[in-house]
Write a structure and sequence with these properties.
2 copies of one chain form a homodimer.
Chain A (H helix, E strand, L loop, with lengths): L1 E4 L8 E2 L1 E6 L5 E6 L2 E5 L4 E7 L3 H9 L1 E6 L5 H9 L7 H5 L3 E2 L8 E2 L4 E13 L2 E14 L11 H4 L2 E4 L2 E11 L6
Antiparallel strand pairs in A: 2-12, 3-4, 3-7, 5-6, 6-11, 7-10, 8-9, 10-11, 12-13
């Protein structure tokens, strides 16, 4: 039986990304984001949505750059911490012990412990409902060599990241199939 | 060691949603979408990105409504099929055998076999790079009763959905922790 329930947020798996940003003086911050998606393949563009006038949103709006760092499960607790606390009060790099590394193109730092690091330049920001939607073009990307397979592409198993759904962090399980397996 | 690679799409888990839409005469279609995200909590708003001038994009642009149906793993092959083929050539409900059910508020049908069904009204569409970004407010929601836990909330285990990453469909594995477990 189907049952009507109150419309609310969509219940489906979303990624977790650690978004790095900084103020004009180069003071760094990290915010953990689940509301993010690819939105364009060529050029590569990503969307992040930040609710309200959060500190990180104000930084990104001002500097127009951010890093998007994909965590592995061994730093899950640090990722959670960066989502539950505001960088206005604390220095999250210091508190978590995460290691900052220089970006190639943008001013915000990237996170060493994250196996994939994207550098993004803001191309648009719009307000939709309670969300501030930031669109960033991916201008550079780094990965850990040890998460690549023999073809030089990212191995999902070696990446060992996780998904967020219904306020829980879930491991990725077995691969059911590859896209296109159903045939045309 | 970190290695620079060509900027491309973000490698992280995204959801799979079966988006239902129809033409003004009520001819139904289904498109499978991974590029989707929550973007606003109050009011509840979802984003979907459709690359190029696809048939479903043209339908949604015209009728300003769509259903967002969350699949369970038992219909994965049908979900894949609806992403690999265009509704301009074939009737995807007929081809897949998926069961259409009436919506409460919108004209597009919903999919019976999907344990959660959201009804969305388009509030904005913008073009970013190669993506047509559609924002829909969730105006109604139905779930299968048998995926609810004893508190009446959706059980991720019972929902049995999957995530999409690097062109593969992955099961959700164990729950590592709930949001906030790191403490403040």
């Amino acid at each position: 039986m189907k049952k009507n329930i109150q419309p609310s947020n969509i219940t489906y798996p979303q990624p977790i990304a650690l978004v790095t940003c900084c103020d004009p003086d180069g003071n760094d911050n990290i915010i953990t984001i689940a509301w993010t998606s690819n939105v364009s393949r060529v050029p590569p563009i990503v969307m992040i949505s930040i609710g309200g006038e959060k500190y990180s949103y104000r930084l990104i709006r001002e500097t127009k750059e951010f890093g998007l760092n994909i965590p592995c499960s061994s730093i899950l607790e640090k990722a959670d911490f960066c989502g539950e606390n505001s960088g206005e009060q604390i220095n999250k790099f210091e508190k978590t012990g995460l290691t900052k590394i220089d970006s190639s193109v943008i001013k915000p730092k990237l996170i060493w412990e994250c196996p994939i690091n994207y550098e993004c330049k803001v191309i648009d920001i719009i307000k939709i409902g309670g969300g501030n939607i930031i669109f960033g073009e991916v201008v550079s990307c780094m990965t850990d060599e040890n998460i690549l397979d023999e073809n030089g592409t990212v191995s999902v198993e070696k990446l060992d990241t996780f998904a967020y759904i219904n306020k829980g962090y879930f491991a990725l399980g077995k691969c059911f199939a590859k896209r296109g397996f159903s045939g045309k």
